[in-house]
Every structure is written in structure tokens, then in C-alpha cells.
Amino acid sequence: MRKKKTQNPNTYTPLERNMYLTGLFGQNMIFNIIGVGLTYYLQSVIFVPAIATAIIFAIARVWDAINDPMMGTIVDRTRSKWGKCRPYLLFAPVFIGIITILTFVNGTYSSANSAAQNAWIIAWAGISYILWGMLYTVGDIPIWSITALMTEDEQDRSKILAACRIVAGIGGGLVLPLIIPLSQTVGAKLYESGKVDGLVESTKMGFIIIATILTIIGTITFQMAGIFTKERVQQSEEHHTMKENFKLMWDNKPFRQILISSVLRAPVMLLMLVAMPLLSYYYGDNGATNYIVYMIVLGGGIFGGQFITTALVPKLCEKYEKKNIYNICSIGSGIPFGLLFVCYLIAPSELHKPLWVAILFVLFTLAGAGQGAVNVLQSVMIADAIDYEEYYHGIRPDGVFFSGQSFATKLSSGIASLLQGLVYAIVGFSGDAVRLVNEQLAAGASFKADPQFAPYRAAMFFCCSIPTMIGMFLSVIPTWKYALSDKEHTRILNELNKRRHNGDVAEEVEIEITDEAVGDVEVLDVEVTETEVVDVDAKPSDTE
Fold it and tell me: Distance between CA atoms of 29 and 176, rounded to whole angstroms?
């Protein structure tokens, strides 16, 4: 006779999962309104010089190097009746929404302005963006950290993180095809009606209106995550200073490897920054209708590839080692990114034709597929590293470790913005030159055919291709010999669940009854499988 005693791990309900994903959808709308929309707005709508925009984003990212771990430390030290992540998800979205709108309330940079006017325009762009980054961090770290607290089940965590990346992609991707054509349409109507003087000012007002509407939608949906989620994983009462948390992050080898890999992959963010102006200028000749068509075709390729592999990652992880999938998909994504520039060199003025659009669609789909898998695995591997830390040191630094993901994402955006600004500055695609391009396109010029635009075309295709390819290739260096195998993580998680429930979880007791007799007494042969005792202070060295 065999008796097996088990206890199912605590996990989220379907309603909780759906409302959490709704919140993540809104949060990523807000991120891309700023991460993609603001860059376009500053450079192509109010004409802030490209190098000034690049410097603003670079300074903000330096501050995030301190701000994100600081917020992660605050989250991990939080103890309330709602938990340690939920309080921020309940109260942060409204304030994030307000500062998001204020970043677009600015003047128009022009050589006709006084030096003081232009200085103030650049200063407010920098101040408002840094304030936005600080407030956004208050919501970003908790919304990702709470995924490790909503369930004790490894498969459920992988499933929700895979769903997170799909929903985040939809929320962020929704901004791309909407914000430019809708703002142009609204701006044109304002100009035709005479309610706003001048094409530039009407375009700016149209952008502000659409950004505000999208931000309100994002804020309302973001709020759902705080209202409906629940934290289930038990928390340690041990606290650490920010200095100790920096050391904690660096000493945790699996986390250190995935964080460095994420930073090396930073140029992939160039695609998001350059996609809107590239599609608007090159494929659409700055026309809203053509822009939407090509965004659906080419944007649909990269997002479609992302969604397919994102949905498949949990199943792939059941059969293959996470680090192998991560490395293969990184390299596999880099190759098609590199081929984009090859296509441009072969047919620089013909990429809008059906054959080339079909080829680019395939390349975008393959690149997006690899990128989607990598994005999911990054979050899953960070969550695994948190388990690793709890197993060896008895604490769960959810906020601190997911602040590393937030920091890597924003640092990547900053690096990409700096690269874009440098490339654009080199070819002269900045400030009044962008204003002139917009005027020429409005007068009927062709961005993809006219020779005077050749340096700008090449710069855009280069940014989407070569740096991105190099970044994807470099990102596998830290993870090639990843420190935490799937087998070891499964063992760690099983032991953690035993500890959390006083040894009841997954403990197996076997009782075998035999017919063996000694005299008149029947003997029970009892075999007990005991829980292994682990020294929590013993941690593998980095050299193992």
C-alpha cells in the first residue's frame, strides 16, 4: 500500500489573472506613449535637436541607475494590509497618468525663438521626462514583482509571465499605429477649421489631444492590477539597505548574468524609436493612410512573431533548457535584423513594392519571434533568480530584482535614444532640418525617391538593423554558461514550498505492509522519505 500526501501550491484565480493582465496592458500603453511617442514628438513635432533629446534620455537613465534599485528596496521593505506591491499599484497609476500628459505640454523649438525660450523648452522636456521616470518606476517595479507573489506554482508563474509579454506587447503595440495618424488627422481638422494657427501648432495640438486620450485609457486599465490582485507567497521580515541590495543583485550570479545580457541587448529598442518616423516618412510619404497600411503589414509581422513564440515559451520550457532557448532565440533574432539593412542597400527606393514588402514581412516576423521568446524568458529567469536567493539566503528580493528589469528596460531605451540622436546628428536630421522635411513632404516630395533625403533614409534603416543585430549577438555572452539549470531550479522551488508550509508540501511518506510475522506479532515495515536539510548560509561560489 502506498500513500502520498501532497498539497497544491497557492495560486491566482482566473479573474485575478485577467485583471492583472488588464492592468499590465494599460501600464505598457503609458510606457510606449512616452518611450516611443515622446521621442517622435520631441524630434518631429516640436523639433527639439536630436542631440539634445539624446542627452535628456541619457541623463534620465543615469538617474534611473539609482532610482530603480531605491524603489525596489522600498517595495521589499513595505509591509501593509495589502501586501508589499499592491499599495503602489492602488495609488500610483493616477499620478503616472498626470505626469505623462504634462510631458507633452511644451513649446515649439525654433531658430526664430530667443535663446531663453529654446532653453526652457529643452529644460522642461528634461525635467518632465525625469519626473515621469521616477513616478513610472513606482508602478513598474511592483506590477512585475507581484507576479512572483501571486503564485507558488512554477508552471503558473511561467504561464502568467508569458501572458504578460503578450499583453504588454499588445498594449505597447497599440500605441504605434494609432498615435501618429490620429494626431495628424486631428491636427489637420484643427488647421482646416482655423481653431489653431499654423500647420506646426495644429499638428502639436493634435498630438497632445491623442496622447491625452490614450493616457486616460492606459491609466484606467492600469488601475485594475492594484484593485484585483492578491499576494500569496510568504515574505521574510528581514530588511536590507540599498547598498546591501546592490551587493545582493551583483552576488546573485544568475541575476547578474541576465541583467548584463539585457543591457547588451539595448539597441533592439532602436526599432521602436525609429519605426514610427520610418514608416511615416519612407513608406507613407508622411500620409496617415499609407502609414497605417504598412504598419499593419510590417508591424503585424514583428508583433505576430512575438505573440506566437511568447505563447509557446511555457511549452518549450517543459522540453528544453531555458538558457538554450534564450541563447538560440537571441542569435536567431539578430540575423534577420541585420538583413534589413542588406535589403535597403540592394533596393533603397523600392522597398515599398510588394515583393520587398513580403521579404521584409518575413524578416520582421523572424526577428519578432526571437525577441518575443527572449522577453518572456528574461522575466521567468529573474523570477527563478529570486527563488535562488530565497533558497540560499532566506529572503525574497522581488522588488529589488524586478527593479533590475525595469532599470534594464529604461537604460536600453536611453542607450537607444543616445544612439539614434548621434546617428541623426551625424547626417543632419535634426531641429529645423526635420521641420523642412515635413514641409517638403507636405508639398508632395517623396522621402523614398528624392536624392536629398538619401542620408536620412540610410540613417533610419541603419538604426533599425545593424546596432540591433550586434546587440542581440552580444547578449548571449553572459548567458552562454548560465549559472542556474532548470533541474536545479526545480529542486530549489520544491524545497522552498516545503519550508513555506512546514515541510508538508510534496513530502512523500511510504508505508509498506508485509505478511512477515515474528511469533504472533505482525511487523509493519515502514519506510519514510525525509526532507533534506539544507544550510541556508551555504551558497555556491561563482567559480562553481
Answer: 10
Phi, psi of 377 (to 5 degrees): -65, -35
Q: What angle do CA 429, 419, 287 make, to 5 degrees?
A: 45
Q: Which of 287, 302, 292 is nearest to 448 (CA)?
A: 287
Which residues, listed in sequence order, are joined to residue 300 by a DSSP beta bridge? none
Query: What are the φ and ψ backbone dihedral angles of 480, each rounded to 5 degrees?
Result: -60, -40
Range 354-367 burial, b when 16+ CB lie within 10 A, else e: eeebebbbebbbbb
Burial of 351 (0-12, 13-18, 19+ CB in 10 A): buried
Alpha helices in 194-241 (DSSP H): 199-228
- Of 398, 374, 376, nearest to 387 by C-alpha is 398
> What is the tens place of the pLDDT at every residue in 242-279?
677 778 888 899 999 999 999 999 999 888 788 777 87
* Identity of the residue numbered 97: G
Taking the C-alpha atoms of residue 460 and residue 208, their distance in angstroms, rounded to an integer, is 25
Alpha-carbon distance of 452 to 448, in angstroms, equals 10
Report the C-alpha gap between 127 and 119 in whole angstroms. Answer: 12
- To the nearest 10°, report the CA torsion of 454, 459, 464, 466: 110
Q: What digits encode the pLDDT tens for the residues 501-539?
A: 765 443 443 444 344 444 444 444 444 444 444 444 455
How far apart (Å, rounded) are the C-alpha atoms in residues 305 and 177?
17
pLDDT tens by residue, 429-447? 988 898 888 888 878 888 8
**CB–CB of 298/367 below 8 Å?**
no
In the structure, how many helices (H) and strands (E) does the chain have? 18, 3
The residue among 63, 47, 208 whose CA lies nearest residue 129 is 63
Helix or strand run (H / E) with residue 522: strand 521-528
Q: What is the number of other CB atoms lying within 10 angstroms of the CB of residue 94? A: 12
C-alpha cell at position 155: 508552471
Check if the beta carbon of residue 225 is closer than 8 Å to that of residue 23.
yes
In angstroms, rounded to a whole number, what is the distance separating the alpha carbons of residues 149 and 100? 28
Let me know: does 207 contact 41? Beta carbons within 8 Å: yes
Between CA 205 and CA 191 the distance in angstroms is: 10
Residue 321 and residue 485 in contact, taking contact as beta carbons nearer than 8 Å: yes
C-alpha 15/C-alpha 453 separation (Å) is: 52
**47 Ramachandran zone, left/alpha/beta (phi>0; psi -120 to 50):** left
Residue 399 region by backbone torsions, left for phi larger than 0, else alpha for psi between -120 and 50, else beta: alpha
Max avg pLDDT among 142-156, 319-333, 418-432? 319-333
Strands of the sheet containing 521-528, edge to edge, are 3-4, 508-518, 521-528
Which residues are 521's β-sheet partners?
A: 518
Question: 412, 383, 410: which is closest to 135 by C-alpha?
Answer: 410
Rg (CA), the chain: 26
Whole-angstrom distance, CA of residue 184 vs CA of residue 205: 10
